[in-house]
Amino acid sequence: MAKSSVKTSKGMMIDIGISEKDRAAVAAELSKMLADSYTLYLTTHNFHWNVTGPLFNTLHLMFMTQYTEEWQALDSIAERIRALGHYAPGTYREYAQLSSIKEPTSVPNAEEMIAILVKDNEAVAKTARAALKRADAADDQPTVDLLTQRLDIHEKNAWMLRSLLQ
User: What region holds the Ferritin/DPS domain (predicted)?
Assistant: First the structure.
């Protein structure tokens, strides 16, 4: 049977019923989720500031709603990584290495912003789905719950954004 407790730097044991190996694997997947989520947050906030055109007000408000929700989620993801006994990534360098999302290199027009955010929300959903599979295999229900909620939000955001392009 895999040992499920590990000493922390102060000698406290982590014994939550999930092996260290499984906690490390789930934390690694959550770190990718955090990196994708942070990159999406930055992109959405950037587009909120810089959107122009006839849909300005609609997109400005929609982007604000989405980046505000995403900002709140970052803390939940990072705190779950910590609860599993691992450090959460927190630098741009780490996020650039871990994220499946590439930052835009210029300010696109409004329609391109929408298309980028559809693609980026779908990327976060795929990352969440992969992490969810790992968490489920580890019988890590709190992480499964967190990721299920994130999946719902990103799939809904992608749908709403996609609808603007049809």
Answer: 28-166
